[in-house]
Write a structure and sequence with these properties.
The chain starts with a helix and ends with a helix. By secondary structure, it is of the alpha+beta class.
Length: 254
């Protein structure tokens, strides 16, 4: 698929830019929402968009760092040049480039590239998920008591009054860790963990993950079970555990 090849090329070239900046003394700016941004974020997104536009000049773009004029195309590229900018700034190599292609509201292609870790995951609708060229598959864990649960920022659970549900998950699951959504995606797709829940996420944080996890046999929705990347949160599982986790987080409303 041409779109996937172009996305992989864009992710790799963005990775070269990001890696060059990793060991430098970066000036950190603050965006309107008080989140950090660096020249590496901006240059990587510009590179990704320029590569894609050469092949698909009429396609739309939704990126984290810049606004884009929209066309009437049914295709939209959704881009996060550096997911994990705070890690990148602190020289923690757990960050990734996310690139996804949406057609008529459905994600059809996705790439997740961890440039400092030399990990490349990609998927196309109906073609499976691959991590460094090897086909990936989610776990077969079917009991919450046996599950490995990973999560996003804990303060979000408290700010949204999900702290009791979080503690129930922690107490019930066999193991729990906060790896960050880059590793959460990779580990879930390859069957190393079983549940990944993040209560604060933008579409560009979610889009590529969705197709990678689902093509590996998993499921990604919002915390209420809606099939969307636009709710501001996401729950990703090996599918077997999905409804049980949703039911726990619905308890607050019952």
């Amino acid at each position: 698929m041409k779109e996937l090849k172009v996305a992989i090329q864009a992710a790799k070239e963005a990775g070269n830019i990001i890696n060059r900046y990793f060991d430098s003394n970066l000036k950190v700016e603050k965006k309107a929402d008080n989140s950090p941004v660096t020249i590496a974020d901006k240059e990587a997104e510009k590179k990704i968009v320029s590569i894609i536009k050469k092949q698909f000049p009429d396609h739309n773009f939704l990126g984290e760092e810049f606004p884009y004029q929209q066309t009437d195309s049914e295709y939209k590229w959704i881009i996060d040049p550096i997911d994990g900018t705070k890690n990148f700034i602190r020289k923690v190599p757990f960050f990734a480039t996310f690139i996804a292609l949406e057609k008529d509201g459905k994600i059809i292609t996705g790439v997740v590239h961890l440039p400092k870790m030399n990990i490349l995951a990609y998927a196309t609708k109906g073609k499976g998920c691959f991590i460094n060229g090897k086909k990936a598959r989610v776990s077969r864990i079917s009991k919450l008591e046996d599950a490995f649960f990973v999560y996003g920022d804990i303060d979000e659970y408290y700010s949204k009054n999900y702290d009791k549900e979080l503690m129930k998950m922690v107490a019930t699951c066999a193991r729990h860790r906060g790896f960050g959504q880059q590793w959460g995606c990779i580990f879930l797709a390859q069957g190393s963990v079983d549940i990944d829940l993040n209560l604060k996420a933008k579409p560009w944080d979610i889009a590529a993950q969705k197709i990678i996890i689902e093509e590996a046999g998993g499921k990604l929705t919002d915390i209420e079970g809606k099939d969307t990347i636009y709710s501001g949160d996401y729950l990703a599982t090996n599918k077997k555990l999905h409804e049980e986790v949703i039911s726990i987080f619905r308890e607050r409303k019952s």
